[in-house]
Each structure stands twice: as structure tokens, then as C-alpha cells.
Amino acid sequence: MLARLRFTALRQSQAWVRMASSAPTTKNYIGGEMRESSANKWIDVCNPATQEVVTRVPETTNDEMLAAVAAAKKAFPAWSKTSILTRQQTMFNLQKLIKENMSELAAALTREQGKTLADAEGDIFRGLQVVEHACSISSLQLGETLPSVSTDMDIHSYRIPLGVCAGVTPFNFPAMIPLWMFPMALVCGNTYVLKPSERDPTVTMMLVELAEKAGVPPGVLNVIHGTKPSVDFICTDPDIRAISFVGSNHVGEYIYEQGSKHGKRVQSNMGAKNHGVIMPDANKEHTLNQLVGAAFGAAGQRCMALSTAVFVGDAQQWIPELVERARKLKVDAGHKEGADLGPLISPAAKQRVEELIQSGVNEGATLVLDGRGVSVPGFEQGNFVGPTVLSDVKPDMKCYTEEIFGPVLVIVNVDSLDDAISVI
């Protein structure tokens, strides 16, 4: 409780936002300071359940982005020479602070992203696991030796930091994915420039503030904001040595191409169309429970969502029961008790999902459960789409070929396992 009270007091000042006449604004974090941007373009961040403007994010200026990289570059020599045990202790401190403030982090995440509080806590917890992994750096950073590889010759290998690294993160896991990136980079001795999603930056900024309290020195971790201009900057700036990205195929391919072209190491984790093959000899109860969670959890807004189920033979008889379980899921604002699905991130996302559902109907699929048009009392302006199931889907349909990124399960019916393998 004491930790929660301390964090509440901290949030009352909220160093990372400034109250404007219309809405608070989110700041850049450069050289250990929360800095108000001089940007002339701002992006509204809305609560997806209400359309209330929660904060406004700057399209960070080029000079501000250069300052972030300069701060990271300046901090690198000292940080890279800091002992592994000191960097490890920083991660232990960060781990403790995240645990102490889990509820506040989850509430902020739900307010901007929309997912249920249970999903939000899971989002943070899975990121926390990476911080815990970073705490084992004293064994992860070990080099290797190979004696007598030749006459009077031994081989010694060392793991050394690269320098300034950068990360670009998506809206759907605004805590987990930043925590995939900067803790491992920092504990290995690198410095970092992070660009969180412009759709839900607050929980990331809270994590950065906790990192500062954990002992991350000024300049070691920096945050810029924006859309394509900030991505282009990260891809082309000569002082950034490596880029991590998680997000859509289109953006990921672009970052991979541009970053590689400019001599950077790039890891790009993109979208997916995940399949589950349902055999008739599977455990029915377990299978249906897992299908509902995998297809509709987080409102389907995750690259690991099970968006396609291939039912083999007699397993197709389970489809009506699957539909009934999906129908019972409660659609509500993420902070409401008992909510199973929250809203989608934006009105545009809702429109796209509904258009893909309709495309399936137009192309001959059977709409056995329609989640369009759902209205949540008290949140009528929310971006809600309920659980949806399209059956009799064919592999050439648009709803099959595209990643829907919503609470939609498409079902393909086949006669045998060989047929299922051929479809996939």
C-alpha cells in the first residue's frame, strides 16, 4: 500500500505530461529530463471506450530527435564501462518497482489501449518476465574460450555492447513490448532511444520513470514520439547501431529494408495468420476453452491470436458449442468488472474489422456469430466489436488471407489431416 501511495503522489505531478487548455500533452524524455516538445503537430490519444482525449502526443521535431540520440551517444562510454553487477542491480530495482506499481500501470494501460484490466496486468507481467531475465545478465554475458585451436593459439570471445540502439513499439502491448526491448539493451551496456506507439504512450512513460528511479543514469534511456518521421529518423540516423521493431507487416518490412540499407542491425517482428488444426480425437472441453481464449482474448488485437481454426472431420460437430461459448463472452469497457473483451483501439480499426467480416459474407462464408453493432450501455461511443465467427471459409477469401486483428475467428472445414496441412 505504501508503494501505491508513493506512486499516486508521483502521478499527481506527472512530470511526463503538461496540462494544456484542451488536454494534457506527453513529453519527450531526453538526457534524463522530461522535455516539452516544440512540435507544431500533435496527435490525440483517445480512450477507445469513450473517445475522451486522454493526452496529446507530439510529432517530435528533428532537433529533439537529434538531441535524444546525442544524449544516448554521450552516455554510452560511461554506461558501457559500468560493471555488469551495477547494471544487474538496476534491473533488480526496476523489477521491484514494476511489481509494486502493477495496478496503476494496468489502469493507465486500459484507459488508453482498451483491453481488460486482467489482460493489462498480463501485458505488464509478461514484460516483467523479460526484466527478470535481464537480472541474470552475469551468466548471459559470459564469453567463450577455445584453447589450443592451433599451435600456440587460443580463442577468446567477448560480448560487447553495440552503442546506441532504438526500438519502435506497437499499440497492442504498450508495456510488454517496450520491456522486451530496453531492459535487455541497457543491461548489456547499450544506450537506447525508444519510440512508443503514438496511440497509447502513457504506460511506457510510466515505465521509463520507474527505470529512472531504478537507477538508469541520464541519457542511457531516451523517448521520442511521433509517426513516420520519427521512424524514418531512427532508420537513417548514423549514430543508431541497431533497431528492434514489433508491429504490422507493412511497417516492419519498411523498417527492415531502410534500417539494413543504412547499415544497422534490424530485428523486425511482424504480423501473423495463426492456425489451429482441430482433430476429432482431441479433448473437446479443453480444445473449445483454449480456442475461445486464443481467438478472442485481447479483442483479437495480437499477432499471436488464433484467428483461423481448421476443423477436421467429425470435429466440425463442435462448432455450434464453440459459438455458444463465444456468445457468452461479455463485451464492456476494459475497466469494468467481468469484462471479457474491451474495445478496439480506434474507430478506424473497428471499421476495418467490420469490413473484413462483411467481405467474408459477400464471398460466401457463413456468419454464424455476428459481433457487429454491439452497444455497451454507458459506452455507446466505444470501438466495440463482439466475438464473431465465420464458418465455411475458403483460402482465397479476403477474411482468410488478411490478418483481421479483431475478435474474429474464421473456420475452415476439411475432411482429413492431410487436407488441413494442404490448407496451411
Quick synopsis:
By secondary structure, the chain is of the alpha/beta class. Helices cover 42% and strands 20% of the residues.
Write the layout of secondary structure elements.
Blueprint (H helix, E strand, L loop, with lengths): L1 H12 L3 E3 L4 E3 L1 E3 L2 E3 L6 E5 L6 E6 L3 H20 L2 H17 L1 H12 L3 H18 L2 H4 L3 E7 L2 E5 L6 E5 L7 H12 L3 E5 L6 H13 L6 E3 L4 H9 L3 E7 L2 H13 L3 E5 L5 E4 L5 H13 L11 E5 L6 H9 L19 H16 L3 E4 L18 E4 L6 H4 L6 E7 L2 H7 L1
Parallel strand pairs: 9-10, 9-12, 10-11, 12-13, 14-15, 15-18, 17-18
Antiparallel strand pairs: 1-2, 3-4, 5-6, 7-8, 16-17
Helix pairs in contact: 3-5, 3-8, 4-5, 4-8, 5-7, 9-10, 11-12
Question: Would you kindly provide a written description of the structure presented here, covering whatever features stand out?
Answer:
It is a single chain. 42% of the residues lie in helices and 20% in strands. The protein contains 15 helices and 18 strands. The protein has a five-stranded parallel beta sheet, with helices on both faces. Strand 9, helix 7 (176-187) and strand 10 form a beta-alpha-beta unit. It starts with a helix and ends with a helix.
SS element count, helices: 15
Largest sheet: 5 strands, parallel
Give the overall silhouette.
Answer: globular
Structural class: alpha/beta
Poorly predicted ranges (pLDDT <50, ≥5 residues)? Answer: 1-13
Strand residue percentage: 15-25%
